[in-house]
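Pilot study result, target chain (213 residues):
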Amino acid sequence: MTARTSRELQLGVFASGRGSNFSALLKAIAEDRLNAQVRLLVSNRSDAGALGTALEQGIPTKILSSADFSSGDRFVKTLLFELRKHGVDFIALAGYLKKVPMEVIREYRHRIVNIHPALLPSFGGKGLYGHVVHEAVLNHGCKITGVTVHIVDEQYDHGPIVAQRSVPVKEDDTADSLAERVLQMEHRLYAETLQLFAEGKVRVEGGRTVIDR
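Predicted structure:
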């Protein structure tokens, strides 16, 4: 492990789909590039591929959908209970397609991050995820797109930006080809950014992040 590491993040990862970013984080942990332990994988979908990956790795999982609860309050209380029970102190959204409840954001203030497949604030907000983002980038004739890791607040794709990395758009790109290159960048940037948190190098001041190098 790198000498500058200050603490091991106790991660809760939220995922709704196949979980390629989740797998990339697990690889970074195994290769000592990320000082963290995944304590819990949360999904709102029982068919999410990330659940199978977690089970293969012996990581506890929990399927929680607000639609399965009689009230939003019961859903939130159950989610917070599971996070506390598993000792989660930091949350990473990895293709999680639901809005994080306000109560969870308050409890984990500045300790929830999301990765978005574009350079925010462009091409972000409700409904802009996955291939929809890449199609919008191409339709606007953008020459550069990229990846953003940001702290989660009460609005979609809105919190303080922690890190960004650009990806050039090629003339012959399709949404699929662009998505593949952006995803490769996501896999690298997410682990690198989470490691900054593990090293205690990220601060929020005046609604912006400051990285102590």
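One observation from the pilot: The chain has one domain: 9-199. A full batch analysis is planned for the follow-on phase.
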